[in-house]
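@channel sequence for tomorrow's demo:
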Amino acid sequence: MNRAVAPARWVRVLILTVVGVLFAVPLASMAEFTLRDGTGHGWVHWADLLHPSRPEAYAPLWQGLRNSLVLAVATMAIVMLLVAPTMVLVHLRLPRLRRWMEVVALLPIALPSIALVVGLAPIYLVIGRTFGTGIWSLAFAYGITCLPFAYRSLQANLDAIDTRTLAEAARSLGASWGRVLLRVIAPNVRRGLMLAGLVSVAVVLGEFTIASLLNRQNLQTALVVVSKIDPYLAVIMSLLSLALVFVLLLVIDRVGRLLTVRAGR
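structure tokens (generated this afternoon):
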């Protein structure tokens, strides 16, 4: 009988060290660049965030940040209100479609963003003529981009619990399908829901290609514009956006652990 052999501790430490260095070096370089002030290093550029010397340089940045936050909320709503219920429906009532849904859900990750834009451009032309060219319309494209990551996060949780038994027990007690979804299934997959929401926020905050080619302004396209005026400001905002995603990851993980402990009591 073959038994899996765990790697030695020094191997795990070595792997984590190499991965940590690969992440730390570019971040440290970015931080060092923002501290340059011409004569040495200081906090001049960071202090400029509170008292900007050129307010016109910040206008596209704040507009892009607001647009990205709106898109993050809209994309999360698509994931929570459309993707998650559809996955539960397929898992409970239409198991034969699960393989086809997996293929469709994972397809966007195999396609480059520029190929998606080529296919979405005619659709957005119709949307623009009918509903306008508001930034909210990008949420549909971002929902497709986030689909593979959200699918994997939710599917892992659905496979970890006996969803069918829980649903049948709740239905036998007179619960409607809406109550089953909200009061029975959702609490058991909340960690997957939170992770899917975090991934959606991270993808939206870091997406550039779709917004640029569809001529919409988000945080990343605004950073490109601002970098031509003040490169220090662009790098500072990039660092802050990375820090925000990292903090969200820690919060989601902590909340998930607390909810798991409470559910086990």
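heads up for whoever presents: The CA atoms of residues 194 and 215 lie 30 Å apart.
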